[in-house]
C-alpha cells in the first residue's frame, strides 16, 4: 500500500473536472471514459478514497451529461 498525499487527491479531482474541457474527443466518448473511471474505482473499492472518487466522478457525469430520460 502506498501513501496517498493530499496533493494526489487534489490532482485527481482537478484532472477529472478539467477533462471535460481539454479532452479532444466527442462528448459521448468523454462520458464513456468518465463512466469507465467511475466503474474502476467502484469495483476496486479498497480505500475510502476509491468511494470518494466514485461519487465525485458520478457527480461530474451528472453535471455535464444530465440524463434525458431517453437512455
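-> sequence recovered:
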Amino acid at each position: 500500500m502506498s501513501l496517498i498525499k493530499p496533493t494526489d487527491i487534489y490532482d485527481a479531482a482537478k484532472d477529472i473536472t478539467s477533462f471535460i474541457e481539454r479532452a479532444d474527443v466527442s462528448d459521448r466518448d468523454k462520458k464513456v471514459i468518465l463512466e469507465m473511471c467511475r466503474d474502476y474505482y467502484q469495483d476496486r473499492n479498497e480505500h475510502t478514497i476509491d468511494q470518494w472518487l466514485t461519487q465525485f466522478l458520478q457527480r461530474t457525469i451528472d453535471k455535464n451529461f444530465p440524463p434525458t430520460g431517453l437512455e
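The helical segments are 6-22, 27-44, 48-64.
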